Amino acid sequence: MRPELPGLLQEIGAEVTRAYPVYGRLLNGPYAAAIRQGVEQALYAFVDRVADPGKNAVLRDELLRKFGRVEAYEGRELDTLQGAYRLGARIALRRAKALGQQYQLSPALILAFADALFAYVDELERISREGYVEVQSRAFSEVPARRRRLLHLILAAPPLPQTLTGLCEAAAWHLPAEVTLVALRSPVPEHLEAGLADDVLFDLDVPQPHLLVPGGLTPERLAMLDAALGDCHAVLGLTVPLAQAADSLRWARRVLNLIDEGVVADAPVVRCADHLVTLWLLSDPALVSHIAAGELAPIDDLPASRRDRLVETLRVHVSTRAPAEQVGELLGVHAQTVRYRLRNLDALLGDRLADPDHRFALEASLRALHLLSRGAGE
């Protein structure tokens, strides 16, 4: 079954979002990664159970409860989620029948697979219902629960729902023109919530906890966050219009990932605003590598050590626009060596260094590759 899972994930994603457009909207919002991870965990956990019936599925269960919470926050009945689960099961069964024909598996085996699959779907529904009931039991008439739902709606994919103003009144929360999102590193200390200002929205019981601070990060707001966060590491997103709140959170979470990868230096509090170019350059590392490979194709056939020296010289040269003497100081080599390498690069790259578009592509991709290699410790 394992070789079929990547393709099956794509097929289920396409058919479920076609049948239930609301999930297509959620897959473009800030919870997209958690949703995709949850679907992936649900499929892989089924196969893991076949291979090892005693294997636990703690991560899967937490993500499934998250699915149930999302349904409750958005005011839907569980029928939609249950329908999506069952559609996914039918797609998986269809794939299993095709494999049965391909490998001449017995009808009894396919029937046993179908029984196990739909029993598994019942289990998924039961666990998601736990999250759904958990939210409902908080009684949406209470201000904290309404504020949590309000945060969820603000961070859903645009446009903002028309019901937002009414929910703000019910939650006793003033709708701001601008907001700043804060991504937190899990687990969050128990004392954090008590230290937050009354108008800060938060969701701390999720795999990727976060805050919404109305307005910009004034000195008073920063002092409040500093006192509340304590030892909890955080990334401060950009201050953006309310409709772009999801972007602020997405960028903050990306910086948190870059910290984990070693690209951005860790600190108790990191500002997105200090790493905007890095965020942009590394928004699609695979594409950066592809652009760099195209621009540097003329030197591909050189020995690796010589190629690396030329690439590093080129990176410093195009990014600093400095004379050979200064480039040499940065690289720790003589200026004549720099001039020799630049002449080699001119000969190998032809007009690329003189062409503005190629030169920009070279500089951007080389800067990005340098950041990635720094993160890899190379």
Task: Describe this protein's structure.
This protein has 17 helices and five strands. Strands 2-3-1-4-5 form a five-stranded mixed β-sheet, sandwiched between helices. It is 63% helix and 7% strand. A hairpin with a 6-residue loop joins strand 2 (201-203) and strand 3. It is of the alpha+beta class and 378 residues long. The chain is flat and about 75 Å long. The protein has three domains: 2-136, Globin-like (Orthogonal Bundle), CATH 1.10.490; 175-280, 2-Layer Sandwich (Alpha-Beta Plaits); 285-375, no CATH class. The mean pLDDT is 89. The chain has helices at residues 5-19, 21-26, 32-51, 58-73, 79-103, 107-136, 143-155, 164-170, 192-195, 219-229, 245-260, 276-281, 285-295, 304-320, 324-331, 335-349, 356-375, and strands at 178-184, 201-203, 210-214, 234-241, 269-271.
Oligomeric state of the chains present here: single chain
> What is the structural class?
alpha+beta
Reading off the top of the CATH hierarchy, the class of the largest domain is best stated as Mainly Alpha
Q: Biggest sheet: strands side by side, in what order? A: 2-3-1-4-5
Q: Give the H and E element order.
A: HHHHHHHHEHEEHEHEHHHHHH
Number of domains: 3
CATH architecture annotation name of the largest domain: Orthogonal Bundle
Low-confidence stretches: none
- Count of helical stretches: 17
Average pLDDT figure: 89
CATH topology name of the largest domain, in short, is Globin-like
Major sheet attributes = 5 strands, mixed
Please count the beta strands (DSSP E, at least 2 residues each). 5
- Output the radius of gyration: 26 Å
User: Globular, elongated, flat, extended or rod-shaped: what is the shape?
Assistant: flat
Query: What is the percentage of strand-forming residues?
Result: 5-15%
Distance between the termini: 37 Å
Helix content: 55-70%
